[in-house]
Specification:
The complex is a heterodimer of chains A (about 90) and B (about 375). Chain A has 3 helices and no strands. With about 90 residues, chain A is mostly helical. With about 375 residues, chain B is an alpha/beta fold. The chains are: A mainly alpha (about 90), B alpha/beta (about 375). The interface of A and B includes residues 35, 40, 43, 44 and 57 of A.
Amino acid sequence: MAAVYDHLVTVLTDKFEVDAEEIRPDMTLAGLELDSLAIVELYVTLQEHWGVPLAEDDSAADLTVEQVAQAVTAQLPAGDADRDGAPR
Amino acid sequence: MTKVSPTAVINGLGSCLPPRVLTNDDVRRRGVLDTSDAWIRSRTGIARRRAADDDISTGDLAVAAGRAAQESAAARADLVLVATTTPDRRCPATAPEVADRLGLGTVPAFDLSAVCSGFLYGLVVATALIRTGVCTRPLVIGAETYSRIIDPLDRDTAVIFGDGAGAVLLRAGDRAEPGALAGTDWGADGTGADLIAITAGGARQPDPAHRMSREERYFRMRGREVYGQAVRRMTESSRAVLAKAGWPPASVGAFIGHQANQRILDSVADRVGIPPRHCYGNLHDVGNTAAASIPLALADTAAHRRVRPGTPTLLTAFGGGLTWASAAMTWPAARPCDRPPEPRATGSTASPTARSTHRRNPSWPLSTTTS
Protein backbone atom coordinates (compact mmCIF):
# COMPACT_ATOMS: atom_id res chain seq x y z
CA MET A 1 0.00 0.00 0.00
CA ALA A 2 2.79 2.42 0.89
CA ALA A 3 4.54 1.88 -2.43
CA VAL A 4 1.26 2.28 -4.33
CA TYR A 5 0.43 5.45 -2.41
CA ASP A 6 3.90 6.89 -2.94
CA HIS A 7 3.79 6.10 -6.64
CA LEU A 8 0.35 7.70 -6.86
CA VAL A 9 1.69 10.88 -5.27
CA THR A 10 4.59 10.89 -7.73
CA VAL A 11 2.22 10.50 -10.70
CA LEU A 12 -0.06 13.25 -9.39
CA THR A 13 2.82 15.68 -8.94
CA ASP A 14 4.90 14.79 -12.01
CA LYS A 15 2.27 14.03 -14.62
CA PHE A 16 -0.72 16.04 -13.43
CA GLU A 17 1.27 18.89 -11.89
CA VAL A 18 -0.57 18.75 -8.57
CA ASP A 19 1.17 20.63 -5.76
CA ALA A 20 2.65 17.94 -3.49
CA GLU A 21 1.59 19.86 -0.38
CA GLU A 22 -2.07 19.57 -1.39
CA ILE A 23 -2.00 15.78 -1.56
CA ARG A 24 -3.40 14.05 1.51
CA PRO A 25 -4.96 10.59 1.82
CA ASP A 26 -8.44 12.03 2.36
CA MET A 27 -8.24 14.53 -0.50
CA THR A 28 -10.59 13.78 -3.42
CA LEU A 29 -9.42 13.79 -7.01
CA ALA A 30 -11.86 16.62 -7.71
CA GLY A 31 -10.31 18.50 -4.79
CA LEU A 32 -6.96 18.17 -6.53
CA GLU A 33 -8.63 19.72 -9.59
CA LEU A 34 -8.40 16.64 -11.79
CA ASP A 35 -11.21 16.73 -14.34
CA SER A 36 -12.99 13.62 -15.62
CA LEU A 37 -10.51 12.94 -18.43
CA ALA A 38 -7.52 13.48 -16.15
CA ILE A 39 -8.98 10.91 -13.75
CA VAL A 40 -9.33 8.35 -16.56
CA GLU A 41 -5.78 9.13 -17.66
CA LEU A 42 -4.66 8.55 -14.07
CA TYR A 43 -6.39 5.16 -14.07
CA VAL A 44 -4.80 4.18 -17.38
CA THR A 45 -1.39 5.20 -16.00
CA LEU A 46 -1.85 3.18 -12.81
CA GLN A 47 -2.99 0.14 -14.75
CA GLU A 48 0.08 0.30 -16.96
CA HIS A 49 2.49 0.75 -14.08
CA TRP A 50 1.11 -1.91 -11.78
CA GLY A 51 -0.22 -4.28 -14.44
CA VAL A 52 -3.62 -4.49 -12.78
CA PRO A 53 -7.13 -4.28 -14.27
CA LEU A 54 -8.97 -1.18 -13.09
CA ALA A 55 -12.36 -0.39 -14.62
CA GLU A 56 -12.28 3.10 -16.06
CA ASP A 57 -15.98 3.44 -15.44
CA ASP A 58 -15.26 3.05 -11.73
CA SER A 59 -13.15 6.19 -11.83
CA ALA A 60 -14.89 9.06 -10.11
CA ALA A 61 -14.09 12.57 -9.00
CA ASP A 62 -15.19 11.93 -5.43
CA LEU A 63 -12.68 9.14 -4.84
CA THR A 64 -9.96 10.04 -2.38
CA VAL A 65 -6.27 9.51 -2.99
CA GLU A 66 -6.31 6.75 -0.38
CA GLN A 67 -9.28 5.03 -2.05
CA VAL A 68 -7.51 5.03 -5.41
CA ALA A 69 -4.39 3.54 -3.81
CA GLN A 70 -6.55 0.90 -2.13
CA ALA A 71 -8.24 0.03 -5.44
CA VAL A 72 -4.83 -0.67 -6.96
CA THR A 73 -3.54 -2.54 -3.91
CA ALA A 74 -6.62 -4.78 -3.85
CA GLN A 75 -5.74 -6.00 -7.36
CA LEU A 76 -2.11 -6.75 -6.60
CA PRO A 77 -0.89 -10.21 -5.62
CA ALA A 78 0.09 -10.26 -1.93
CA GLY A 79 3.52 -8.73 -1.38
CA ASP A 80 3.61 -6.93 -4.70
CA ALA A 81 2.51 -3.62 -3.33
CA ASP A 82 6.00 -2.91 -2.02
CA ARG A 83 7.89 -4.18 -5.03
CA ASP A 84 9.29 -0.75 -5.76
CA GLY A 85 10.98 -0.86 -2.38
CA ALA A 86 9.39 2.30 -1.07
CA PRO A 87 9.56 2.75 2.71
CA ARG A 88 6.59 1.44 4.61
CA MET B 1 -1.26 -8.98 -66.97
CA THR B 2 -1.21 -7.36 -63.57
CA LYS B 3 2.20 -6.57 -62.19
CA VAL B 4 2.67 -7.30 -58.49
CA SER B 5 4.47 -4.34 -56.95
CA PRO B 6 6.09 -4.09 -53.57
CA THR B 7 3.79 -1.59 -51.88
CA ALA B 8 1.17 1.16 -52.11
CA VAL B 9 2.13 4.81 -52.49
CA ILE B 10 -0.15 7.76 -51.72
CA ASN B 11 -0.32 9.60 -55.01
CA GLY B 12 -3.17 12.05 -54.39
CA LEU B 13 -4.81 13.76 -51.42
CA GLY B 14 -8.30 15.25 -51.49
CA SER B 15 -10.67 16.86 -49.03
CA CYS B 16 -14.16 18.27 -48.81
CA LEU B 17 -15.73 20.14 -45.93
CA PRO B 18 -19.27 21.46 -45.89
CA PRO B 19 -19.12 25.25 -45.63
CA ARG B 20 -21.35 25.72 -42.56
CA VAL B 21 -19.29 26.25 -39.38
CA LEU B 22 -20.68 25.42 -35.94
CA THR B 23 -18.83 27.01 -33.03
CA ASN B 24 -18.92 25.55 -29.56
CA ASP B 25 -21.46 28.20 -28.59
CA ASP B 26 -23.63 27.25 -31.58
CA VAL B 27 -23.67 23.62 -30.42
CA ARG B 28 -24.33 24.61 -26.82
CA ARG B 29 -27.26 26.83 -27.76
CA ARG B 30 -28.76 24.30 -30.19
CA GLY B 31 -28.96 21.56 -27.57
CA VAL B 32 -29.46 23.88 -24.58
CA LEU B 33 -26.43 22.07 -23.19
CA ASP B 34 -24.98 22.63 -19.76
CA THR B 35 -21.49 23.38 -21.03
CA SER B 36 -19.31 26.23 -22.26
CA ASP B 37 -16.77 27.00 -24.94
CA ALA B 38 -13.98 26.86 -22.33
CA TRP B 39 -15.16 23.47 -21.01
CA ILE B 40 -15.36 21.96 -24.50
CA ARG B 41 -11.94 23.28 -25.48
CA SER B 42 -10.27 22.04 -22.30
CA ARG B 43 -11.82 18.55 -22.52
CA THR B 44 -11.59 18.01 -26.26
CA GLY B 45 -9.35 20.59 -27.94
CA ILE B 46 -12.21 21.40 -30.33
CA ALA B 47 -13.25 24.98 -31.13
CA ARG B 48 -15.50 24.47 -34.15
CA ARG B 49 -16.68 21.86 -36.60
CA ARG B 50 -18.48 21.69 -39.94
CA ALA B 51 -22.07 20.64 -40.48
CA ALA B 52 -23.60 19.53 -43.77
CA ASP B 53 -26.88 21.16 -44.75
CA ASP B 54 -29.86 18.85 -45.12
CA ASP B 55 -29.42 18.54 -48.87
CA ILE B 56 -25.78 17.39 -48.57
CA SER B 57 -25.19 13.68 -47.93
CA THR B 58 -22.16 11.58 -47.10
CA GLY B 59 -21.95 10.57 -50.75
CA ASP B 60 -21.92 14.21 -51.85
CA LEU B 61 -18.90 14.86 -49.64
CA ALA B 62 -17.26 11.61 -50.77
CA VAL B 63 -17.64 12.46 -54.45
CA ALA B 64 -16.00 15.85 -53.93
CA ALA B 65 -13.12 14.47 -51.83
CA GLY B 66 -12.60 11.61 -54.27
CA ARG B 67 -12.59 13.96 -57.23
CA ALA B 68 -10.09 16.17 -55.41
CA ALA B 69 -7.78 13.22 -54.69
CA GLN B 70 -7.86 12.16 -58.34
CA GLU B 71 -7.12 15.70 -59.39
CA SER B 72 -4.24 15.84 -56.91
CA ALA B 73 -2.82 12.66 -58.40
CA ALA B 74 -3.74 13.53 -61.99
CA ALA B 75 -4.95 9.92 -62.25
CA ARG B 76 -8.18 7.92 -62.24
CA ALA B 77 -9.07 5.24 -59.75
CA ASP B 78 -9.62 1.59 -60.68
CA LEU B 79 -11.40 0.76 -57.39
CA VAL B 80 -13.43 2.85 -54.94
CA LEU B 81 -13.60 2.12 -51.22
CA VAL B 82 -15.74 4.37 -49.01
CA ALA B 83 -15.17 4.09 -45.28
CA THR B 84 -18.19 5.48 -43.46
CA THR B 85 -20.43 5.10 -40.44
CA THR B 86 -23.09 7.24 -42.08
CA PRO B 87 -23.81 5.77 -45.53
CA ASP B 88 -26.40 7.51 -47.71
CA ARG B 89 -28.71 4.50 -47.42
CA ARG B 90 -28.78 1.26 -45.44
CA CYS B 91 -28.77 -0.51 -48.79
CA PRO B 92 -26.94 -0.35 -51.13
CA ALA B 93 -23.44 0.80 -50.26
CA THR B 94 -22.52 4.41 -50.97
CA ALA B 95 -19.36 3.62 -52.94
CA PRO B 96 -20.87 2.38 -56.24
CA GLU B 97 -22.84 5.59 -56.73
CA VAL B 98 -19.75 7.62 -55.77
CA ALA B 99 -17.75 5.73 -58.41
CA ASP B 100 -20.44 6.40 -60.99
CA ARG B 101 -20.61 10.09 -60.15
CA LEU B 102 -16.84 10.24 -60.52
CA GLY B 103 -17.23 8.88 -64.04
CA LEU B 104 -15.32 5.71 -63.25
CA GLY B 105 -17.70 3.37 -65.04
CA THR B 106 -17.90 -0.15 -63.66
CA VAL B 107 -14.88 -0.24 -61.35
CA PRO B 108 -15.38 -2.31 -58.20
CA ALA B 109 -16.76 -0.19 -55.35
CA PHE B 110 -17.71 -1.03 -51.78
CA ASP B 111 -18.19 0.48 -48.34
CA LEU B 112 -16.21 -0.42 -45.26
CA SER B 113 -17.65 -0.06 -41.78
CA ALA B 114 -15.10 0.35 -39.00
CA VAL B 115 -16.37 3.62 -37.50
CA CYS B 116 -13.46 5.95 -36.68
CA SER B 117 -10.86 3.37 -37.77
CA GLY B 118 -12.56 3.11 -41.17
CA PHE B 119 -10.06 5.09 -43.22
CA LEU B 120 -7.04 3.19 -41.91
CA TYR B 121 -8.90 -0.11 -42.31
CA GLY B 122 -9.49 0.97 -45.90
CA LEU B 123 -5.83 1.85 -46.31
CA VAL B 124 -4.82 -1.60 -45.04
CA VAL B 125 -7.23 -3.29 -47.46
CA ALA B 126 -6.21 -1.12 -50.42
CA THR B 127 -2.51 -1.68 -49.71
CA ALA B 128 -3.09 -5.42 -49.65
CA LEU B 129 -5.05 -5.24 -52.93
CA ILE B 130 -2.17 -3.39 -54.58
CA ARG B 131 0.44 -5.76 -53.20
CA THR B 132 -1.49 -8.74 -54.54
CA GLY B 133 -2.11 -7.14 -57.92
CA VAL B 134 -5.90 -7.01 -57.60
CA CYS B 135 -5.92 -3.32 -58.49
CA THR B 136 -3.37 -0.61 -59.15
CA ARG B 137 -5.04 2.70 -58.26
CA PRO B 138 -7.55 2.30 -55.42
CA LEU B 139 -9.33 5.41 -54.18
CA VAL B 140 -9.86 5.27 -50.41
CA ILE B 141 -12.41 7.79 -49.14
CA GLY B 142 -13.38 8.47 -45.54
CA ALA B 143 -16.69 10.36 -45.53
CA GLU B 144 -19.12 11.16 -42.73
CA THR B 145 -22.19 13.17 -41.84
CA TYR B 146 -22.32 12.53 -38.09
CA SER B 147 -24.72 15.48 -37.85
CA ARG B 148 -27.37 12.93 -38.92
CA ILE B 149 -26.73 10.48 -36.08
CA ILE B 150 -25.72 12.75 -33.22
CA ASP B 151 -28.21 13.67 -30.52
CA PRO B 152 -28.00 17.47 -30.22
CA LEU B 153 -29.13 17.12 -26.60
CA ASP B 154 -26.31 14.73 -25.64
CA ARG B 155 -23.46 16.77 -24.22
CA ASP B 156 -21.02 13.85 -24.39
CA THR B 157 -21.16 13.56 -28.18
CA ALA B 158 -22.85 16.68 -29.58
CA VAL B 159 -19.78 18.81 -28.99
CA ILE B 160 -17.29 16.36 -30.49
CA PHE B 161 -18.33 15.34 -33.99
CA GLY B 162 -18.26 17.14 -37.32
CA ASP B 163 -18.96 16.38 -40.98
CA GLY B 164 -16.47 16.06 -43.82
CA ALA B 165 -14.65 13.78 -46.22
CA GLY B 166 -11.04 13.07 -47.08
CA ALA B 167 -9.55 10.78 -49.69
CA VAL B 168 -6.31 9.34 -50.95
CA LEU B 169 -5.58 7.87 -54.35
CA LEU B 170 -2.99 5.11 -54.11
CA ARG B 171 -0.83 3.55 -56.77
CA ALA B 172 1.60 0.68 -56.91
CA GLY B 173 5.11 1.83 -56.20
CA ASP B 174 8.40 1.42 -54.48
CA ARG B 175 9.15 1.61 -50.77
CA ALA B 176 11.76 4.29 -51.31
CA GLU B 177 9.23 6.76 -52.74
CA PRO B 178 7.59 9.51 -50.66
CA GLY B 179 4.12 8.36 -49.63
CA ALA B 180 5.03 4.66 -49.58
CA LEU B 181 3.36 2.39 -47.02
CA ALA B 182 6.05 0.69 -44.95
CA GLY B 183 3.79 -1.31 -42.66
CA THR B 184 0.26 -1.71 -41.35
CA ASP B 185 -1.36 -3.07 -38.22
CA TRP B 186 -5.01 -3.59 -37.40
CA GLY B 187 -7.26 -5.33 -34.90
CA ALA B 188 -10.71 -5.54 -33.36
CA ASP B 189 -12.29 -6.46 -30.04
CA GLY B 190 -16.02 -7.13 -30.15
CA THR B 191 -16.25 -7.43 -26.37
CA GLY B 192 -16.40 -3.62 -26.45
CA ALA B 193 -19.12 -3.45 -29.11
CA ASP B 194 -21.50 -1.55 -26.83
CA LEU B 195 -19.07 1.24 -25.96
CA ILE B 196 -19.66 3.13 -29.23
CA ALA B 197 -22.99 2.30 -30.82
CA ILE B 198 -26.33 3.20 -32.33
CA THR B 199 -28.76 0.72 -30.78
CA ALA B 200 -31.59 0.77 -33.30
CA GLY B 201 -31.82 0.67 -37.06
CA GLY B 202 -30.03 -2.62 -37.69
CA ALA B 203 -31.20 -6.22 -37.90
CA ARG B 204 -31.36 -6.59 -34.13
CA GLN B 205 -33.79 -3.73 -33.70
CA PRO B 206 -34.86 -2.77 -37.21
CA ASP B 207 -38.35 -1.30 -37.02
CA PRO B 208 -37.96 2.33 -38.02
CA ALA B 209 -41.67 2.99 -37.55
CA HIS B 210 -41.52 1.89 -33.94
CA ARG B 211 -41.30 4.75 -31.48
CA MET B 212 -37.70 4.91 -30.45
CA SER B 213 -36.18 6.62 -27.47
CA ARG B 214 -33.30 9.00 -27.96
CA GLU B 215 -31.03 6.37 -26.43
CA GLU B 216 -31.96 3.85 -29.11
CA ARG B 217 -32.05 6.16 -32.05
CA TYR B 218 -28.86 8.17 -31.72
CA PHE B 219 -25.15 7.49 -31.61
CA ARG B 220 -23.95 6.95 -28.06
CA MET B 221 -20.46 6.67 -26.63
CA ARG B 222 -19.31 5.63 -23.15
CA GLY B 223 -16.66 8.23 -22.81
CA ARG B 224 -14.50 7.08 -19.90
CA GLU B 225 -14.17 3.51 -21.10
CA VAL B 226 -13.57 4.68 -24.66
CA TYR B 227 -10.78 6.96 -23.44
CA GLY B 228 -8.94 4.10 -21.77
CA GLN B 229 -9.42 1.71 -24.68
CA ALA B 230 -8.44 4.35 -27.23
CA VAL B 231 -5.22 5.21 -25.43
CA ARG B 232 -4.22 1.59 -24.90
CA ARG B 233 -5.15 0.28 -28.35
CA MET B 234 -3.65 3.14 -30.35
CA THR B 235 -0.46 2.98 -28.26
CA GLU B 236 -0.08 -0.77 -28.74
CA SER B 237 -0.97 -0.63 -32.43
CA SER B 238 1.47 2.25 -33.01
CA ARG B 239 4.27 0.33 -31.32
CA ALA B 240 3.37 -2.77 -33.35
CA VAL B 241 3.42 -1.01 -36.72
CA LEU B 242 6.69 0.76 -35.94
CA ALA B 243 8.22 -2.60 -35.00
CA LYS B 244 6.98 -4.12 -38.28
CA ALA B 245 8.48 -1.22 -40.24
CA GLY B 246 11.69 -1.42 -38.22
CA TRP B 247 11.38 2.23 -37.20
CA PRO B 248 12.28 3.36 -33.68
CA PRO B 249 9.77 5.93 -32.31
CA ALA B 250 12.49 8.58 -32.35
CA SER B 251 12.72 8.25 -36.15
CA VAL B 252 9.08 9.32 -36.64
CA GLY B 253 8.93 12.88 -37.90
CA ALA B 254 5.15 13.17 -38.30
CA PHE B 255 2.37 11.67 -36.21
CA ILE B 256 -1.32 11.93 -37.10
CA GLY B 257 -3.71 10.13 -34.79
CA HIS B 258 -7.44 9.89 -35.29
CA GLN B 259 -8.67 13.38 -34.45
CA ALA B 260 -10.90 12.25 -31.61
CA ASN B 261 -9.84 14.28 -28.65
CA GLN B 262 -6.68 16.27 -27.99
CA ARG B 263 -6.13 14.72 -24.60
CA ILE B 264 -6.26 11.20 -26.07
CA LEU B 265 -3.86 12.21 -28.86
CA ASP B 266 -1.41 13.75 -26.39
CA SER B 267 -1.60 10.67 -24.20
CA VAL B 268 -0.90 8.28 -27.11
CA ALA B 269 1.96 10.39 -28.50
CA ASP B 270 3.54 10.62 -25.05
CA ARG B 271 3.35 6.85 -24.54
CA VAL B 272 4.71 6.01 -27.98
CA GLY B 273 7.51 8.55 -27.54
CA ILE B 274 6.55 11.12 -30.19
CA PRO B 275 7.38 14.71 -29.14
CA PRO B 276 4.62 17.34 -29.54
CA ARG B 277 6.50 19.11 -32.32
CA HIS B 278 5.99 16.06 -34.53
CA CYS B 279 2.23 15.82 -33.92
CA TYR B 280 -0.09 17.23 -36.57
CA GLY B 281 -3.82 17.56 -36.95
CA ASN B 282 -6.82 19.84 -37.39
CA LEU B 283 -9.07 18.71 -34.54
CA HIS B 284 -9.35 22.29 -33.29
CA ASP B 285 -11.07 23.39 -36.50
CA VAL B 286 -13.08 20.39 -37.70
CA GLY B 287 -13.72 18.28 -34.58
CA ASN B 288 -13.90 14.51 -34.78
CA THR B 289 -14.97 13.60 -38.32
CA ALA B 290 -14.75 9.83 -37.64
CA ALA B 291 -13.60 7.93 -40.75
CA ALA B 292 -12.75 11.21 -42.48
CA SER B 293 -10.44 12.51 -39.77
CA ILE B 294 -7.08 11.09 -40.84
CA PRO B 295 -7.30 11.92 -44.56
CA LEU B 296 -8.60 15.40 -43.67
CA ALA B 297 -5.66 15.92 -41.29
CA LEU B 298 -3.22 14.57 -43.89
CA ALA B 299 -4.59 16.90 -46.56
CA ASP B 300 -4.62 19.92 -44.26
CA THR B 301 -1.08 19.33 -43.00
CA ALA B 302 0.17 18.74 -46.55
CA ALA B 303 -1.61 21.85 -47.84
CA HIS B 304 0.36 23.91 -45.34
CA ARG B 305 3.56 22.03 -46.24
CA ARG B 306 4.33 21.42 -42.63
CA VAL B 307 6.05 18.09 -43.27
CA ARG B 308 8.79 17.38 -45.79
CA PRO B 309 7.91 14.62 -48.29
CA GLY B 310 9.67 11.39 -47.36
CA THR B 311 9.47 12.03 -43.60
CA PRO B 312 8.73 8.83 -41.63
CA THR B 313 5.08 9.14 -40.60
CA LEU B 314 2.88 7.26 -38.16
CA LEU B 315 -0.92 7.14 -38.53
CA THR B 316 -3.13 5.51 -35.92
CA ALA B 317 -6.85 5.30 -35.27
CA PHE B 318 -9.35 3.79 -32.88
CA GLY B 319 -13.10 3.47 -33.18
CA GLY B 320 -16.31 1.62 -32.55
CA GLY B 321 -16.34 -2.13 -32.88
CA LEU B 322 -14.00 -1.84 -31.14
CA THR B 323 -11.53 -1.41 -33.98
CA TRP B 324 -8.07 0.06 -34.35
CA ALA B 325 -5.45 0.34 -37.07
CA SER B 326 -2.09 1.97 -37.74
CA ALA B 327 0.09 2.66 -40.74
CA ALA B 328 3.78 3.48 -41.08
CA MET B 329 4.50 5.43 -44.24
CA THR B 330 6.65 8.19 -45.57
CA TRP B 331 5.06 11.60 -46.02
CA PRO B 332 3.62 11.88 -49.55
CA ALA B 333 4.81 14.35 -52.15
CA ALA B 334 1.25 14.92 -53.42
CA ARG B 335 -0.19 18.44 -53.38
CA PRO B 336 -3.67 18.12 -51.90
CA CYS B 337 -6.78 19.49 -53.55
CA ASP B 338 -9.94 20.66 -51.82
CA ARG B 339 -13.42 20.78 -53.34
CA PRO B 340 -16.83 21.99 -52.21
CA PRO B 341 -19.56 19.36 -51.67
CA GLU B 342 -21.31 18.15 -54.80
CA PRO B 343 -25.06 17.89 -54.15
CA ARG B 344 -26.73 15.24 -56.29
CA ALA B 345 -29.16 17.72 -57.81
CA THR B 346 -26.32 19.54 -59.51
CA GLY B 347 -23.62 16.93 -59.12
CA SER B 348 -22.74 14.66 -62.00
CA THR B 349 -19.57 13.66 -63.69
CA ALA B 350 -19.40 17.29 -64.75
CA SER B 351 -16.65 18.89 -62.74
CA PRO B 352 -17.26 21.99 -60.61
CA THR B 353 -14.48 24.51 -60.24
CA ALA B 354 -11.60 23.03 -58.31
CA ARG B 355 -9.63 24.81 -55.70
CA SER B 356 -6.07 23.79 -56.24
CA THR B 357 -4.13 24.14 -53.05
CA HIS B 358 -0.73 25.61 -53.21
CA ARG B 359 1.12 27.38 -50.52
CA ARG B 360 0.36 30.80 -51.91
CA ASN B 361 -3.30 30.02 -52.38
CA PRO B 362 -5.23 31.68 -49.54
CA SER B 363 -8.39 29.68 -50.25
CA TRP B 364 -7.37 26.64 -48.21
CA PRO B 365 -10.17 26.52 -45.66
CA LEU B 366 -8.38 25.34 -42.53
CA SER B 367 -5.59 26.32 -40.30
CA THR B 368 -3.57 23.41 -39.06
CA THR B 369 -3.00 23.08 -35.38
CA THR B 370 -0.34 20.86 -33.97
CA SER B 371 -1.92 18.22 -31.80
